[in-house]
Amino acid sequence: MKKYIIIGLVVFTNQLIAQQIVSDRPGQTEASSTIPKGSLQMESGAQVGFIEDNVVKERQVLAPVTLFRYGLTNGIEIRVFNQLEQVKNQINDTEINGISDLEIGTKVQLLKKDSISTKIVFLSHLVLPTGSTNLTNGNFGTINKLSISHKINEKVNLGYNLIYNYFGTGNGDVTYTLSFSIGISEKVGIYMESYGGFIEFENYLSNFDAGMTYLVKNNLQLDFSFGTGVNNQMNYISAGFSWNIKRQ
């Protein structure tokens, strides 16, 4: 459960129609578009979360959580992701500080046409066992997502992801996201989202989150979000930004 929460809550995403920048923050659903060719995009933020079950009672502070995206072509981007973590066990009052496993990957546009309202991308990350002791998985892994979105109208968007993650041991996780987003104005967007799945093809987790974005300018977006477990004791709040630097 801990591994799923850390990975699942970090790779944030949401695409709000009224805005110019295509960001993979702040929700769980990866945006179904790549960034423009030749542009570098930095998406970073901080998150505080709490996890509790029959065995674990932890507070997690993830800061900074940073994703770098570079537009290799108009339909392919390369990606690098990492984060600093502080995990405090509130049962025995112990604390772990360090860096997570490094992720490198790509995002490929499979479908995007002006004549239709559906967009599709495929995303894959390789997880490298480079993290600090007690924070690394200790094995190579992969994160794989098929992201699909449907433009309902000029302000409303429906997006969902189908996901398979494998972290070097066991059977892996099959998960999903389902996001409903609305552009309130030219600058403000909101979203609501359900996400979860079968961990190791056995334990089912269900979660919910929601949030908002504020477009400072066409290449700079601020965000805030919060989430909670539906059938598990998990809560988090997060805030951050996305900044696109277009090569001249």
Structural features, described:
There is one protein chain. This protein has one helix at 2-8, and strands at 39-52, 57-71, 76-89, 94-99, 102-112, 118-128, 141-151, 156-166, 173-183, 188-199, 203-217, 220-229, 233-246. The protein is mostly beta strands and 248 residues long. The protein has a single domain (2-246), classed as Porin. Strands 1-2-3-5-6-7-8-9-10-11-12-13 form a 12-stranded antiparallel beta barrel. The longest helix is centred in the N-terminal third of the chain and has 7 residues, at 2-8. It is globular, with a radius of gyration of 17 Å.
Largest beta-sheet characterization: 12 strands, antiparallel, barrel
- The H-level CATH homologous superfamily, spelled out, is monomeric porin ompg
Count of individual beta strands: 13
Poorly predicted regions:
1-19
The CATH architecture comes to Beta Barrel
- Give me the CATH fold name: Porin
N-to-C series of helices and strands = HEEEEEEEEEEEEE
Number of domains: 1
Query: Mind telling me the CATH class?
Result: Mainly Beta
SS field, number of helical segments = 1
Secondary structure elements and their pairing?
Blueprint: H1 2-8, E1 39-52, E2 57-71, E3 76-89, E4 94-99, E5 102-112, E6 118-128, E7 141-151, E8 156-166, E9 173-183, E10 188-199, E11 203-217, E12 220-229, E13 233-246
